[in-house]
Amino acid sequence: MSDAPGPITALPGFAGLPPAGSPEFDALVAFCDRHRNDALTALPWVGAQIADACGFAAMLQVIQRHGGRRVYLPRGLQACSARLGVELDAATHRHLLDRAGAAGTLEIPSGWGVFVALRRVAIRAAVRAGFDPNDIALAFGVTPRHLRRDVADARADTDTDADATPN
């Protein structure tokens, strides 16, 4: 019996953000839930705020609906929730309003930016799980050189975090 991980197909597909309600969408949400801290850290702050308060499915739907655009945030909680298409809690609503521009608008990150951030989390998870680097590169549509550089960056981040931890 081998300790090697299963086929790379066990990882979620990363060919862009899938439509809500599709099996691929559900797999992406499940992946984000399993890797919650890494996903929240990798996301742009607006995405992380919404995902933390409302869940990854809600955040992905906001990104798909408004991604790459500037959105006006109404001062009322219900109106703002309706505008974004998610039920916000009062604290998240206040935090988003506090970060909005003078005109009351907030820039929603693009779907592509969120996709790239989550793909990076998935690549690093696959590397940690021990998948073959060539299979990872093929599955995620990156070159082996890109994968080596990303793995080196991840190790450097880990080393920096370890150096900052008091003994």
Helix content: 55-70%
Treating each run of at least 4 consecutive H or I residues as one helix, how many helices?
Answer: 9
Q: What percentage of the residues does DSSP assign to strands (E)? A: under 5%
For the termini, the CA-CA separation is 38 Å
Classify the oligomer. single chain
What is the number of strand segments? 2
User: Shape, please?
Assistant: elongated
Uncertain runs: none
String of helices and strands? HHHHEHHEHHH
Strand order of the largest sheet: 1-2
How does the major sheet shape up? Answer: 2 strands, antiparallel
In terms of topology, how is this protein built?
Blueprint: H1 23-34, H2 36-42, H3 45-54, H4 56-66, E1 70-72, H5 77-84, H6 90-99, E2 105-107, H7 111-129, H8 133-140, H9 144-164
Antiparallel strand pairs: 1-2
Please tag this protein with its features.
167 residues, mainly alpha, two-stranded antiparallel ribbon, 9 helices, 63% helix
Describe the structure.
The chain is mainly α. It has a domain at 17-110. Helices cover 63% and strands 4% of the residues. The chain contains 9 helices and 2 strands; from the N terminus they run ααααβααβααα. The chain has helices spanning 23-34, 36-42, 45-54, 56-66, 77-84, 90-99, 111-129, 133-140, 144-164; strands at residues 70-72, 105-107. The protein has a two-stranded antiparallel ribbon. α7 (111-129) runs antiparallel to α8 (133-140) and α7 (111-129) crosses α9 (144-164). The chain is elongated and about 50 Å long. The relative contact order is 0.15. The mean pLDDT is 86.
